[in-house]
Design brief:
It is a single chain. This protein has 203 residues and is of the alpha/beta class. Strands 2-1-3-4-5 form a 5-stranded parallel beta sheet, with helices on both faces. Helix 7 links the parallel strand 4 and strand 5. Helix 3 crosses helix 8, helix 4 packs parallel to helix 6 and helix 6 packs parallel to helix 7. The radius of gyration is 16 Å and the shape is globular.
């Protein structure tokens, strides 16, 4: 069971409120909110939680349906045309569903993060862990799960253990395809992210 604890609004000075800090979620259809209204997607639901708790962060969703890590690597410089303080790399699910060689996935994730750091040296990189159904065999499934902590360690980056914690595989929180969250699922993801990212956002 996952417990979500919302905190009372923080008190910030006017200067802090105008700090313009940004957090980008760089991902695929999960980030794009496939199958739900844009305002119901987890990045926008997270924005509401941040605003309600007085945290001066702007969420920038950058999700493309069907995107692989290779596609993300090609578009990351374009996505980072505006300054970003925290970069959440939430790609790889489509790689896993397609059975792409995990060494390619690993290399693409590492290079994407490196491009973000080259663009903004002070950027905080967060790797969002993914998991896949066991369709491609237990060995591939377990190796895929372990890939994200390994990438985070390689990059000395922060880790979200599993982006879909409490949502993935749960029928009541997903659309009929069993892959994409419904509105309730997106709200749960946002709450999970709020609690997971809070130590970073209040530093």
């Amino acid at each position: 069971m996952i417990l979500f604890v919302l905190i009372a609004p923080f008190a910030f000075s006017e200067g802090e409120k105008d700090s313009g800090k940004t957090i980008m979620f760089f991902g695929d259809s999960l980030t794009a909110g496939y199958g739900v209204d844009y305002e119901a997607s987890y990045p926008m639901a997270l924005q509401v939680l941040l605003d309600d708790n007085g945290l001066p962060w702007k969420v920038i969703p950058s999700g493309v349906s069907g995107e692989t890590t290779a596609g993300g690597l090609r578009r990351v410089n374009w996505a980072l045309r505006q300054p970003v303080d925290v970069f959440v790399l939430a790609l790889g699910g489509n790689d896993g569903l397609r059975g792409i060689d995990l060494e390619n996935t690993r290399a693409n994730l590492v290079e994407t993060a490196k491009k973000a750091r080259a663009k903004y040296p002070e950027i905080r990189v967060v790797i969002a862990g993914m998991q896949i159904p066991p369709n491609l065999g237990e060995r591939y499934t377990q190796a895929f799960r372990k890939l994200y902590p390994e990438v985070a360690e390689t990059l000395n980056a922060d880790l979200i253990p599993f982006l879909l914690e409490g949502v993935g595989g749960e029928r009541e929180y997903n659309l009929s395809d069993g892959i994409h969250p419904n509105e309730d699922g997106h709200r749960l993801i946002a709450k999970y992210l709020f609690n997971t990212l809070l130590p970073i956002l209040v530093e």
